[in-house]
Specification:
6-stranded mixed beta sheet, elongated, homodimer, DNA-binding, 6-stranded parallel beta sheet, 341 residues, alpha/beta
Chain lengths: 341, 341
DNA sequence: AATCATTTTGGGAGCGCTCCCAAAATCTTA
DNA sequence: TAAGATTTTGGGAGCGCTCCCAAAATGATT
């Protein structure tokens, strides 16, 4: 049984191809009785229009691409990404877009994939999860290809590119200030990698908080992690000799690793050492001690990114759009706030 | 700047549309000098063929769909899914397919998405992650639509459908036998939901192991979890009164939750109570005590599923293909094997 | 009932490719 | 060098839609 075409439906309903097309696309200029008849035939036959033909004729594919560049390994360690993907997928469902997923692991992958994402005919727009230095190239190639593009996470060079981000500086400033207000004086940080804007921004907020509270920035209280549990674990080990009494970790998963290291070193949480994480994903509440953390609206973030992209597709690329979302400090046990009665 | 077409390249290279098409598709019947000239023009102009036009003309989209039905909530709790997705994406990259991701949360989602996946023109084939009872309907609709389909995880009704799975019965039989061999006599299980084939099969292996080792099956030693950490946690709490000396959990994440509950109840692991998980994802080695677990080749599983699907696409749907992959018991600390010196 | 305005309908052209067939160019062989 | 075999090339048709324009049908107005 060959696939049905518009023409088949038209014949069966006794109308023309154009009329069936109008019915399908919800044009108002169809007599009610005719619409009903056509709809019936469509129902009975289970006809669905061919996506490729539609795309070719209308120059609109109703497909968005999600590119996750080079972050692949982290992608599967940090629950942040699945949550982001969830928000994006939900928005795509909502707005009737199909989501194409591109996991770019290697340079070869990038070369293979680039033609597919840069040319109309497959995608109407592209979402790139980024903030890493290594992602700059693909972003610029995309910008030059005039493909509607939204970057999730501020890119290093952001002139002319639309992106969505959270206020990382403010968020970590608040988190660290909270620790200081609780009386902690040797506040350490496990920062994200310096080749990422998230890493840089959260570190900046940390420094700013210390500074504004009259505390000195001590390099031996700053370690760098890679957003993995084991990265947090070893960062914490390197921090231990400096005897911190609090740690602000740039992600929950690193905080979890760090707490494991602290526990192994015989420290009591939060009595001897306090912890604040970042993300507020479910894992934050799963360890024996509930993690105080910065809640970022990951799912909504993804959802909003899609809305931004659709805006670009429908209303043109200029001016570039910028969206900064808010965060909230969620106080639980690991920061020791409950110690002060 | 409008997008370039085949015709443009043909004109610039002084050949016909057909010849350019041949060059792009690697046809051998092109004079070498001509091929070189055309390739040069393509290079210079940065031309890429339009995917929609190609799909329409060749009836091949080079796109595969991955459908994750109803499991959405678990999807973002259990790292199994990201890993599976990784394998699938890698295979797609390898074989030059684009991956379209469909997260089906609600019945409405299913209705919205079904037309897109069932009709040629968008997808060449579909992969459904399944094993849940609620997924039967979409699988059968897909089977009836004659769309090439591979189910990842044995579906409830498997006649005529191609699927890939691991030998869950054997795997859990081995895991439980291992615990018994170590001298545990009150072996409990935290099974997966009874509305999933994984849940059922792993439970069956558990029962079989007890039976073959002459132990009685005690209903109070069987609890059901939902593949989440907190599900494992509460399942363990319900198991505690029956005083198990070992627990086989149907997933690592549930084992982690269960161990948390056991620890909170003052039990020492593995001295008082041993644990074996299932999956061997990175989390298995991240807790304070290393988890003994059944390793299943999740990434390769996804990869293989794609290869299966491509086989169906290229060589026809019949007979249905079946692939069962092997697992391996990874012995670490939580089972107490190291206690026997 | 005739005229004009408005709504509804049909069909042609075209989106940018692939595929097939026949024509042109090139190579063999006697 | 001519005939035939083979390789290379060009162009038409068609994939299944959308979009536009003109024709047909309907409605409003005198």
């Amino acid at each position: 049984m060959a696939e049905l075409t518009l023409e088949d439906i038209a014949r069966q309903a006794g109308v023309s191809r154009s009329t069936v097309s109008r019915v399908i696309n919800g044009s108002p200029n169809v007599r009610e009785s005719v619409r009903k008849r056509v709809l019936e035939v469509i129902q009975q036959t289970g006809y669905h229009p061919n996506a490729a033909a539609r795309t070719l004729a209308s120059q609109r594919s109703w497909t968005l691409g999600l590119v996750l560049p080079h972050s692949v390994s982290v992608f599967f360690t940090d629950p942040y990404f699945p949550h982001l993907t969830k928000g994006i997928a939900q928005a795509c469902n909502q707005y009737n877009y199909t989501l194409a997923l591109f996991l770019v692991g290697t340079k070869e992958d990038e070369e293979k994939i680039f033609p597919r994402i840069s040319r109309k005919g497959l995608l109407d727009g592209v979402l790139v999860q980024s903030g890493h230095h290594g992602d700059q190239q693909i972003i610029w190639r995309l910008v030059n290809s005039k493909m509607p593009l939204v970057v999730a996470g501020r890119p290093f060079r952001s002139d002319g590119v639309s992106y969505i981000d959270i206020d990382n500086v403010k968020a970590s400033y608040n988190a660290v200030s909270h620790l200081i207000r609780l009386g902690r004086r040797r506040v350490a940080t496990i920062a994200g990698p310096a080749h990422s804007t998230v890493g840089l921004d959260r570190r900046e907020g940390y420094v700013k908080a210390l500074y504004e509270h009259g505390l000195e920035v001590n390099e031996s209280l700053i370690a760098e992690g890679d957003f993995t549990e084991s990265g947090g674990y070893s960062a914490m080990q390197s921090l231990l000799p400096a005897k911190p009494d609090a740690v602000f970790a740039a992600s929950d998963i690193m905080a979890i690793g760090a707490m494991r290291a602290a526990r192994e070193a015989g420290l009591r949480i939060p009595h001897d050492i306090a912890f604040v994480g970042f993300d507020d994903l479910p894992i934050a509440t799963l360890s024996d001690i509930q993690l105080t953390t910065v809640r970022q609206p990951v799912v909504q973030f993804g959802y909003k990114a899609v809305e931004l992209l659709i805006d670009l597709i429908e209303n043109g690329l200029n001016p570039p759009r910028r969206v900064i979302m808010d965060t909230e400090l969620i106080v639980r046990d690991s920061c020791g706030a409950s110690l002060q009665s």
